[in-house]
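ok trying this again, last paste got cut off
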Amino acid sequence: MRSFPSISLSLAIALGAILTSLLAATGFQVFQSSQAQTLPPAEPELTMPTDSVDPELIAANHRLGFNLLEQLLQDAPGENVLISPTSVAMALAMAYNGAEGDTQQAMAEALEIQGLSLEALNQANGALKEALASDDPAVTLAMANSLWARQNVEFKADFLARNRQFYGAEIASLDFGNPKTLNVINAWVNDQTKGKIPGILDQISPEQVMFLINALYFKGDWQTPFDPDQTTDKPFYQADGAEKQLPMMARSDSFQYLETDQVQAVSLPYGEGRWAMDIWLPKSDVGFEAFAKEWTAEQWQQSLNQFRSREGSLELPRFQVDYEASLSSALSALGMGQAFTDEANFAGMSDLDLLIDEVRHKTVLEVNEEGSEAAAATSVGISVTSIQIPQDPFEMVVDRPFMVTIRDRETGTLLFMGAIVDPQ
């Protein structure tokens, strides 16, 4: 029986016992507060060229996102699910830097990164962090990582150095017994997500020794906004047959559009066009649940290549979704269950015997006539053990459950994805 204190990791717009990791990655600065003590310095931060983003990492993050979405929909049928695959993957990668042996292999399986060495993974994530910087005045994209350690608990210098160097993590040592520490950490999350996510932690237990936190914020103005005067209340039909009135935005235009026997899909670009939101509306005779069960990363990627310009009309709800969930069960189902047990091996973090006890994820998405705003925070908890033919205009009325994705067309990164079953 081990008698060490617990640790929590926070993953983004989800991980909490020894390490809690909130997903977000912009530049690195050592965080200082009146009660903070900076941990040992690491190697100088590397500057990664934006053209070095590894497509293997992007594909792995896509598979992770779709796998997680499938698991979460199974766990909560009929409910909204909204995740940031980028945030979750980045936060877990930070924790992965401390995993060894079978635990490392199990995490690699869940993260779909079996083909990447630790060095290649870190280099790719560093490059991705740099590449996601926005120079579009209509789009704000901010990603930040942080690592908060309990004072007087030693963590391995190379583990801290890699998280600082490749993930731009802000690192601080705090008195976890001071009630103000909880406010300090949550204030960081609130600041990084522009107030969309006020905090990721509810409490700090005596067993927790570290929080790895990632925060991700996105705000984009539509390339072509919807006219508010065209927005009218119309019925939205939920999966159980219930009907509710929602403000339905409307626009007739030339869209990037796809229609198959399974789904209607439309792509709505932001600003100069690098980023886009895609709306996926399953056909009525297919049904939302049947479509969701068969929707994979490979099918999604193939569908993106089939979008074509087409005249049509679109009706889309104006809505906001707030989502919070523990990802621990879903991640265990994806293969990394050992990391949550007494058999976990995080010897690369510390000489303490550690395990992940929870992975938490919070997201927010707001869609309106001007554009959309989204944020994510992920917390990982680690504990000690004990040529096109002319076509007629289309009509797409999003009045029933649908899927949504927000992506970066330049790097291929999937920033947010979700199932909107009951929009508010």
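PB: full thing came through this time. The longest strand covers residues 243-259.
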